[in-house]
Amino acid sequence: MGEMSSVEEERVEQDLRRLPTRRGDYYVPSYQLWADRDEIPRSAEVLSPDDRVVILGSCIAWQAHRYLRLRGYRPFHSPGGYTYNSQSVRTELSRVLEGTPWPLPIAQELPDGSGFTHPFRKNLLASSRSELVVADDHITKEFREALIGADVILCVIGTTIEVWRSEHGGVAINEIPHPELYRMGGWRMELGDLDEIRDDVREIRRLLTHHTTGAQVYAVCPIPLHATWSDDSIITRNGRGKALLRAALDLELSDPDVYLPLWDWMQGQTRRWTPTRPDGRHLDWVGTDRIMHFAERYLAEGEVPPLSITHRARSALRDTAFRLKLPVY
Known about the structure:
- The chain has about 325 residues and is of the alpha/beta class.
- Helix content is about 40%, strand content about 15%.
- The longest helix has 20 residues, at about 130-150.
C-alpha cells in the first residue's frame, strides 16, 4: 500500500478532528467523548514493570498494594496504617523524612488500662509505652527506606478534610480519637479549609522532592466519606471535601508531578455497574481491578497488558466469598 498524499493526510486529520453534533460539525484540536471516558489520551509514562511503588494515604492503599503486586510491581504501604487527611500525610512525611518529633506524645494510655494507642498511626496499639515506642521507630525506619528507594510515590491525600484537633495545642490527628480517649473530652472537629490544604500539599511536595527521587503521583481518594460530625448531609460534606482536595492539587501541582484522577474516575461510573460493595463505599475486588487497571494505563510506560483470566477470576471469587460471608484467603 502506497504512502498517502499530503491531500489525503489532511483529509484524514480533519476527519479525526471532526466532532459532529446536531448543530453542525466542529473541527477541534482534540476532544474525547463521554463514551470513551475510560480511554487514556496519553500516558504519564512514569511506571515501569518491576518498579518499587510506595502508596501513602487513605484506605485504598492495601487494595492497590495487592493489585500492583499481582501485576509484577513491588508495592509498599506503611504498616502503621492509613492517613485520612492532608494534615496527617504531612505530619507522617515530616516525621519519616526529616525526623521531626510527633506533635503529641505518641503513647496515649487508654483510661480502661487496656494498653497504649498512637494518635497518628492507627494500627499501632501496644501493651506498654516502651513497646509502642519501639514499634513506632521500626515503622519510621522501614517507611523511610521504602520512600528513599521508591521509583514511584503515589500520594493519596485525603478521604476527608474533616480533622479532629486536640484542644491542648490544636494538633490535627489522623482520625477520631480512640473511644476511651474521645469520651474524656478535649477534642474539637474542624471542617477543613482550602488554604490549609494547599499549604499541606505544598509542604508534602517539598518533603518528597527534597528527600526522594521517585516520580510523584497525587490523587484524591476515590472512597466516599463515611460519616460527618457536621450539621450538613453526608453528601454535601463529601462533595465539598473532595472538591477542595481536588482544587488544592490542581492549584499546587506542577511539572513533573502527575495528577492521577482516581476520584474523577469514580464519579464517571454512572451506569448500573458499581465498583463498590453494597455499602456504597469500599471498593470490591472487581472494582479495584477496574480502577487500578485505569491507573496503570494512566501511568505506565509502554503497552499495558489486560488482566489475566486467573487474576479476574480470583477477584470475582473473593467478592462472591465476601457476599456469602465465607473466609477469603
